[in-house]
Amino acid sequence: MNQFENILEFRGTWRLYQKRVLNNFDQHATDKKIHIVAAPGSGKTTVGIEMIKRLGQNCLILTPSITIREQWLARVEDVFLCNKNDAKDYLSNTLSSYKPITAITYQAMHSIYAKETSEENIKDIEIVNLLNEHNVKVICLDEAHHMRNEWVKALEQIISKLEDVQLISLTATPPYDANFNEWKRYIDLCGPIDEEIFTPELVKEESLCPHQDYVYFNWPTKEERAAIEKHNKQVLLAKEELMNSPALFELVKTHPALTNPQDCLDSLLENPAYLYALILYMEEKKIVYPSMLSQALSVKKRKLPTVSIKYLEILMQGILFHDLSSFNANDNKVETLRAILKKYGCIYRNEVRMLTNENINKSLINSKGKLESIKKIALAEYHNLGEQLRMLILCDFIKKESLELIGSGTMNQSIGTVPVFEALRTQNTQMKLSILSGSIIVLPKTTAVSICKALIDMGYEAHMIQLNVDEYVRINSNADNGVLVKCVTDAFEQGEIQILIGTKALLGEGWDSPCINSLILASFVGSYVSSNQMRGRAIRKDSMHPDKVSNIWHLVCIEPKSSIHDIFYDPYTSYDLQMLKRRFATFLGVHYTKPLIESGFTRLSYIQEYGKDLNKNTITKINNQMLDASTKREELRDRWNEALVCISEQNPVEDVLELEVEMLKKNYVFANHWLFIVCTIISSFVMQFVRGVSLKLEQNVFGVIGLFVIFVFLIFVLDIGLSKLLAYITPQHTVKKVGQVILATLEDLNIVSHESKYVRIKDVKGTGVMLVYLEGGNAKDKHLFSTCMEEYFSSIDNQRYIIVRKGFKNALNKYFAVPEIFAKRKQDAQIFTSHIKRVLGLCELVYTRNAEGRKMLLKARGKCFGFRNEKMVDSKRKVLGKYE
Fold it and tell me: Which pLDDT does position 867 carry in this prediction?
């Protein structure tokens, strides 16, 4: 019986994306874990309450803050509760006075569980017993990504002890950039993601506004370049000394792999890059080594390059740390090499660092040149929007010590709320600026006067402190942060402030101001989760300005090519840009020039067109393109509208794999081209034979009948044979067959839904890329399919099961990974193998967790080493339209 029947009823209208999620509710509830990802502004709280209502049992809601806790209870009362007088009987915010819907914070739950505080006044009662006593059958985790390790541990233990509990997990920002173990723990607790409400859906339904991400580059300052060059010179000196070091030469000559390669090979293949670095060094130094070592990696001696900085770093990391047991740790030669690296600053926390340096990375992330970027962006946006500009600049730090330097002309050039304020103040005195942080509020004097009066009227103390410039003052008040933030936010929305400079800690989450139409992310500390939350501040729909279009600015400092980079220098390995690329992997947005919506970095076409040629001149051109595009808000709106026409209500966004056709031809698919040639030759002989027979048979009636039978038989055989052959000699057909095998295995194991599903392949014209995705099914099905396909085409690493194809020498035609979901049980792996034989022919399933299988895994890993950097597949999300 549902205890909320006639008690809770949604008094609103469901939006299409909310209906889609709720329509699949019963299906998702079967495994006792419902996991919903919903973009900011999607109404996930309302959807969560509806799920609680449908489950109809006592529920505990866990939230990250008291504010959000109260928002949940207020939403139940205002939007669902049929009789508001029932609130006291059905709603509570404390476990000591439990009601059918009780909301508490994660902190309170952990405190009770750990018995560290009596905040809930039930210190002596175990929380598990209490929840069982109140027959709690539903636990709802709001903003599930917020859970710290100790909270997760407590929750895991609580849930494990509760009887038959249903878990609902809601979040706007899953921790996609967490490490493997953290992600696994998150998924183990919350369950696989069942449904996702995507940003494009919200834009189409006008819950969010059209928006665009722009990237503004800066070149390191003179001082930063000098620091980089100093480091690079040190690295080159270290390389020269190491390559000429008798200690390194003698040490490598004593490596046991030179005398007992068979005994050492397995351990060396645990890290193929280290083995390759050893080979490069021995080859350059003319040290004779067993050919077995190079054969294990399928490398040819005559094609080996000289030792680069990259492989010298790998070699030294191995000798000094990972492979130290192969040498005498007390050998003076080891200490000699360690001393050389320390002398040149190339060791950091037991890691050899030559290509990268922690101090250099920090200096680029916090580059002083980004202050100049902020000024140029702000001026461009002000010039474009004028009085309508509502810009938010989010920083990591306040730099409170710099307050006294305002107006002095000697402000520190660093990223923080105070330096950014001063940089903009001195650039243009017409812009109305404000600083809003937990400890500092700076306002235009006229605005401060009205805010102080309002605070005094509310019963608070408030007074102004004059800065060293006439136009701006600080406010001091005993009002709490919530009141002060609201006062400043109101002034911002009314146009008394045009540029609000704040800290991520105060404004990055839980704060909302729909008027924001330009956001500069000058915050560089944190994860995808925090950056996505900050980004969400700018894309809210503004009811006062329904035509709002928002710009989001990301700042990147490019590390210049230097003397330590070899010919394979890639500016995308620059730490700042690499971090931004990882975050963009999960942001769905519209292409710069085409009506396409997708995740990933490729939609930023102004950057992509320059490839790896990112230097001082090209980034200036890119910045100018970005500034120009940012002024064309109406064009951006039109591009969103055109791209959204094709969005499907049932499957708005597809999990898509992009595969490079040429790489597949080169490395994988055309293993069958010799078979094709042989079949062609055989077929020509058959046709000649048929022709000869037909000349004899057509002499009489029975011969003509016989000829007709042979003709029909050959058509049947050739039709089947050619169709099968064609299925395996083109990249598109081969990939489709692999996809069908993976789908068939998922269906055999009852891992996916029973809805109709099809593997689709599309060529993207003029790009050399094919798209692979699952049409039909639910979000969970699509994600599982995409993950399995990506794992199958990945390099061999440490998979539990691998497939070894017989009769092939090319590593990428011989060794294949069994997707993780099929590798948990032997019988599942065997089912996958029985299906994949239709594609691969003769092949063997190898279990890698015993001695024999481990040897095969290491052999496969070594053979695949040469291809490890050739990523054939890239996963992303797309709204598929006419351009694909």
Answer: 54
Q: Counting Cβ atoms within 10 Å, is residue 323 exposed (0-12), middle (13-18) or buried (19+)?
A: buried
Pairing of strands 472-477, 462-466: antiparallel
Closest listed residue to residue 127, CA positions, set 882, 116, 608: 116
Same domain, 328 and 193: no
Round the average pLDDT of the chain to a whole number and report it: 86
570: domain CATH number?
3.40.50
> Are 413 and 506 contained in the same domain?
yes
Rg (CA), the chain: 32
Strands (E), 160-239: 166-171, 195-197, 211-218
Tokens for 809? 């020498």
Among 320, 342, 363, give the residue marking a domain's end: 363
Torsional class of 6: left (φ above 0), alpha (ψ -120 to 50), beta (otherwise): left
Q: Take residue 181 and report the two structure tokens written for it.
A: 């173990």
Residue ending a domain, among 600, 626, 647, is 647
Q: Please check whether residue 685 lies inside any domain of the structure.
A: no
Number of domains, the chain = 3
Among residues 507, 505, 524, 529, the alpha carbon closest in space to that of 146 is found at: 529
Are residues 280 and 254 located together in one domain of the fold? yes
Alpha-carbon distance 678 to 30, whole Å?
53
* In contact, 664 and 879? CB cutoff 8 Å: no
Q: Are residues 259 and 170 in the same domain?
A: no
Question: What's the domain range around 251?
Answer: 223-363
Same domain as 402, residue 346: no
User: What CATH code is carried by the domain that includes residue 65?
Assistant: 3.40.50.300
Give the DSSP per-residue string, 84-131: GGGHHHHEES-GGG--SEEEEEHHHHHHHHHT---TTS-TTS-HHHHH
Q: Please give the Cα distance from 636 to 638 (Å, whole number).
A: 5
Residue from 444, 538, 477, 522 nearest 199 by CA: 538
Provide the b/e sequence for 440-459 (b: ≥16 CB within 10 Å): bbbbbeebbeebbebbeeee
Of 72, 79, 118, 81, give the one whose Cα is nearest residue 96. 118
* 703, part of any domain: no
- Using alpha carbons, select from 806, 248, 880 the residue that is nearest to residue 595: 880
- Report the Cα–Cα distance between both ends of the chain, in Å, rounded: 49
- Interatomic CA distance for residues 548 and 540, integer angstroms: 9
- pLDDT tens for 496-517 read 999 999 988 777 556 789 999 9
Kindly state whether residues 215 and 236 are assigned to the same domain: no
The lowest-confidence range among 118-122, 403-407, 593-597 is 118-122
- Give me the phi and psi of 659, to 5 degrees please: -120, 135
3-state secondary structure of 659: strand
Q: Answer yes or no: is 24 within a domain.
A: yes
Q: Flag whether pLDDT at 121 surpasses 60.
A: no
* 786-810 tens-digit pLDDT: 999 999 988 888 899 999 988 766 6
Could you tell me if residue 565 is inside a domain? yes
Please tell me the number of Cα atoms within 13 Å of 231 on its side-chain side: 23
| Alpha helix positions (H), 631-672 | 633-644, 661-667
User: Alpha helices of 244-290 — where are they, by DSSP H?
Assistant: 246-253, 261-269, 272-284
pLDDT for position 810 = 60
Q: Which of 359-363, 433-437, 870-874 has the highest mean pLDDT?
A: 433-437
d(CA 427, CA 442): 17
Distance CA 572, CA 559 (A): 9
Q: Which two tokens stand for residue 428?
A: 């243009």
pLDDT digits (tens, 9 = 90+) for 65-84: 888 899 999 999 999 999 98
Burial class (CB in 10 A: 0-12, 13-18, 19+), 288: exposed
Asked if 412 and 329 sit in the same domain, the reply is: no
- Indicate if 359 and 277 belong to the same structural domain: yes
Locus of tokens 């040429």: 662
